Amino acid sequence: MKKIGMIILAVLALSAGIGFQKLNSIPETDTFSLSKTALIDVEGKLQNLSQWQGKVLIINFWATWCPPCLKEIPDFIRLQTQYRAKNVQFIGIALDNLQDVKTYSLKAGVNYPLLMAENSGIKLAHSWGNLLDVVPFTVVINPQGEIIHRQMGEFHSADIEKVLEPLLSLKKP
């Protein structure tokens, strides 16, 4: 019986190691076309991500049923206000239903676009490097359209500012 337990443990450890190796093998920067992604916003209008091309984008996959997601949103609201004039755009992609997102958005005072992806958002997040399919999941995209940072789990404001700092200092004369 102990031998079977050891074999199961070894298989689990090997699987976890392969999963983390895959996760770590994602290149730091990926260029992709924002124009290939269009989603409906909370008002029912189709929004193509290419409209924000040339900006620093912070795209957050979230849901109203996810406590860490809800915990980071007030920071996103504050940072959107703080960095809007510096060519930074937050975008929320909700893996949720429209009514819950609308209700939460109004209650929280979200000041950045919220797009609806529901279950298809998991596939989109996966294609952008969320190999563990977790929420919240956030990508930071530079003005050249490269993913320069991926964050699985909560993205704290101090960490966001560390990622933004070198991007914004490039724009100074």
General description of the model:
42% of the residues lie in helices and 22% in strands. Helix 2 (67-83) links the parallel strand 4 (56-62) and strand 5 (88-94). The chain has one domain (29-169): Glutaredoxin (3-Layer(aba) Sandwich), CATH 3.40.30. With 173 residues, it is an alpha+beta fold. Strands 1-8-7-4-5-6-2-3 form an eight-stranded mixed beta sheet, sandwiched between helices. The chain is built from five helices and eight strands.
Helix content: 40-55%
Sketch the major β-sheet.
8 strands, mixed
Compute the average pLDDT: 85
CATH class: Alpha Beta
> What is the H-and-E element order?
HEEEEHEHEHEEH
Poorly predicted ranges: 5-31
If strands are numbered along the chain, what order do they take across the biggest sheet?
A: 1-8-7-4-5-6-2-3
Shape label: globular
- CATH A-level architecture: 3-Layer(aba) Sandwich
Number of helices: 5
How many distinct beta strands? Answer: 8
What class would the helix/strand composition place it in? Answer: alpha+beta
Calculate the terminal CA-CA distance, rounded to whole Å: 69 Å
- Please give the domain count: 1
Strand content: 15-25%
Q: Could you tell me the radius of gyration in angstroms?
A: 18 Å
Within CATH, the superfamily carries the name Glutaredoxin
CATH topology, which one? Glutaredoxin
Task: Summarize the SSE layout with pairings.
Blueprint: H1 2-24, E1 30-31, E2 38-41, E3 46-48, E4 56-62, H2 67-83, E5 88-94, H3 98-108, E6 114-116, H4 120-127, E7 137-141, E8 146-152, H5 157-169
Parallel strand pairs: 4-5, 5-6
Antiparallel strand pairs: 1-8, 2-3, 2-6, 4-7, 7-8
